[in-house]
Amino acid sequence: MDPGSDGTTKLMASKYEKILLKNMEQPGYTGSLQDYEKAGGYQALRKVLGGIPPDEVIDIVKRSGLRGRGGAGFPTGVKWGFIPKDHPGPRFLCCNADESEPGTFKDRQLMERDPHQVLEGMIITCYAIRASLAYIYIRGEFRLAAKILERAIREARAAGYLGSRILGSELDVQIHVHAGAGAYICGEETALLESLEGKRGLPRFKPPFPATHGLYQKPTVVNNVETLANIPHIIMRGAEWYASIGSPPKSTGTRVFCLSGHVKRPGNYELPMGTTFRELIFEHGGGMRGEKPLKAFIPGGASAPFLTPDHLDVKMDFESVAMAGSMLGSGGVTVMEEGTSMVWAALRLMEFFYHESCGKCTPCREGSSWLVQILQRIWQGEGRMSDLDLLVDLCKNIEGRTVCAFGDAEVAPILSTLRYWRSEYEELIARAEASRSSKKELPVVA
Amino acid sequence: MAGSIFDHLQEEVQDIIGRYPVKRSALLPLLNLAQREEGYVSEEAMKAIAALLDLTPPQVYETVTFYTMFNLKPIGKFHVQVCKSLMCALVGSDDVIEWIREKLGIRVGQTTDDGLFTLSVVECLGSCATGPMMQINDDYYERLTKETVCRILDELKQQGDCPLKSGPFMVPEPTS
Questions:
Q1: I need a surface site. Which of A137, A229, A235, A439 has the fewest CB within 10 A?
Q2: What is the end-to-end Cα distance of chain A in Å, rounded?
Q3: This prediction's pTM
Q4: Of B22, B28, B171, which is closest to A9 when you measure between CB atoms?
Q5: CATH numeric code, B7-66
Q6: Using a CB-CB distance cutoff of 8 angstroms, which residues of chain B are in contact with residue A349?
Q7: Within an 8 Å CB–CB cutoff, is residue A196 touching chain B?
Q8: Tens digits of per-residue pLDDT, B46-78?
Q9: CA distances (Å), B173 to each of A26, A147, A438, B129, B153, in order?
């Protein structure tokens, strides 16, 4: 279906069973407690409280193969298993709702359209890791999502799903919404914890990991919204069911892929892991928005290296995208048509990273500023051929030399566009050099 | 505290502080509350928060300055923030910035003479499938065109509200 006359795109039937978006795609579904219960909500919580011991819940999640949906893809059950059993507590759960990776907008939809699915996942997780206090760290700009979650928390508390002695059991869980205030880095789990402690959001050295030294130096699990939303379904339908979906054994289940850029139907598409980029872009996304063919795409949010039309048949699972030289990251797929300057695209993303560098590590703090300046002068027709080596040299001195993964992320757009579209950089520079020599200016000294 | 901006918000303040086992965690929520009340975070507010949380004013200040959403100076009644990150730029965010500059007669970072609008350009707001977009105060406005941008600014000026703001987000839209 083409975009409607109002510029919107309507939902179409999918050949795959949806898990996370199933409820919200039902006509009239509001995400209220009543709607959620009618759709089978909170049955998974009843099931675990009815006699699945916490350790068995962890084991089920391990066997399901669920991996973190925030970007790093760490096995969720394994993360939970790192929480020390003999610790006197308290233990904490933090739901990472800081969704800030450019190209990613799935958590916003999961929270605004089906908030109880996230809450139920959180309550079960608290049960599994024996935590009684949980926070939803949500990016400050998501005011509507925060309001919707707060309302859902009130509903759940009134119905006995949250609070003390949940559903008559021994389980006590409180959940609070905690809004950030505009800092991309707070999506990094240790920066998130610092921010939640009321400090500047600077990532911590790891180890120790949050599982042993997290919030207030206590054992803490940090899980992404989408990760947590999967938990009730895994409990209800079993580890084996979940593990059979997608690209087992390493990339199981579905993912909500966020499609943006020059396509006809941008949006959130829940597909089994291992679906190809071609299918996402051309079947679900309706293909390119106009006559121009696809030139490039980013496969997993701004931190993921760019890929080319040659990579369209790569499967969207963690291993396949890594094999292709990029990463599945946050699941944000951004499509660019022919005619889009790759130098410009790299510059736009670099401006983002420069703006968001937290300033803790020198290579990133200083390097991001240099990278922006060099890209700007190339884009504005003032570059020199030696800038290309300088860019690579700078990137190599940032990559792997920072406390968190931000350093690796910020060099990805530059290194990957230089790899596949180096000639675009060279053409801009050659034109600049020709114009300089025609003006008989003094040669530029390095 | 006598004369604190939180005087009439005691219940809300205590509720916020009570959510955390360590007081300092209430810092960002209280700063958000202060900005909601005054439109920016004033020096008085920072001092009041420091007293509430047993912090020094510099501890509050060092934290405030890390987070871009906190305004340390008064701004217009409506804070217009246009996303300029790559995904929105691919679908025309630079045009949106131009339309708003033209319509309001101000540059990025400025406030209109009537004190109504401040224009900022920001990085990704998590609305990449529905760009170009902007946030005005608490609300998102998406899939902007020149017509809708003009209408939004006009209605905010005249009525203080505009029905074009986004509701619960879902794209593609459900068939209702």
A1: A439
A2: 54
A3: 0.96
A4: B171
A5: 1.10.10.1590
A6: 85-86
A7: yes
A8: 999 999 999 999 999 999 999 999 999 999 999
A9: 11, 21, 55, 12, 25
